[in-house]
């Protein structure tokens, strides 16, 4: 049986308030899972991250010591972020074999 054929599991939340809002249908599962993960983080996140099995995996730190002032500086930051995401996606696709 493929994992796709498995019935969906009910999520477990660290926060009882978030669990109640999810169970009452006030927020979606994705919103509830994100809120629960972010609420339990020890420090604020300022990054691009992948969330896998309830774990936040930071990919690219968005903390910039000095705000870019020129278009070249902004483009350099965008290029760095894009390169990091491409490298990560390539690594994930290498590991994933259907």
User: Would you count the extended β strands for me?
Assistant: 2
**Which overall shape is indicated by the principal axes computed on the Cα atoms?**
extended
User: What class, by secondary structure content?
Assistant: alpha+beta
Biggest β-sheet: strands ordered side by side in the sheet: 1-2
Number of continuous helical runs: 3
The low-pLDDT segments are none
Order of SSEs: HHEEH
User: Between the first and last Cα atoms, what is the distance in angstroms?
Assistant: 14 Å
Portion in helices: 40-55%
Average pLDDT score: 80
Secondary-structure topology with pairs:
Elements: H1 16-23, H2 29-40, E1 47-52, E2 55-61, H3 71-95
Antiparallel strand pairs: 1-2
Helix pairs in contact: 1-2
Task: Write up what this structure looks like.
With 98 residues, the chain is an alpha+beta fold. It contains three helices and two strands; from the N terminus they run ααββα. It has helices at residues 16-23, 29-40, 71-95, and strands at 47-52, 55-61. Strands 1-2 form a two-stranded antiparallel sheet. A hairpin with a 2-residue loop joins β1 and β2 (55-61). The longest helix has 25 residues, at 71-95. The protein is extended, with a radius of gyration of 18 Å. The mean pLDDT is 80.
């Amino acid at each position: 049986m493929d994992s796709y054929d498995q019935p969906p599991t009910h999520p477990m939340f660290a926060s009882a308030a978030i669990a109640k809002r999810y169970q009452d249908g006030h927020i979606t599962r994705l919103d509830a899972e994100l809120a629960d993960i972010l609420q339990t983080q020890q420090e604020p996140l300022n990054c691009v991250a992948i969330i896998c099995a309830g774990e936040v995996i930071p990919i690219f730190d968005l903390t910039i010591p000095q705000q870019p002032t020129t278009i070249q500086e902004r483009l350099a930051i965008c290029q760095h972020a894009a390169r990091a995401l491409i490298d990560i996606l390539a690594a994930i696709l290498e590991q994933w074999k259907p």
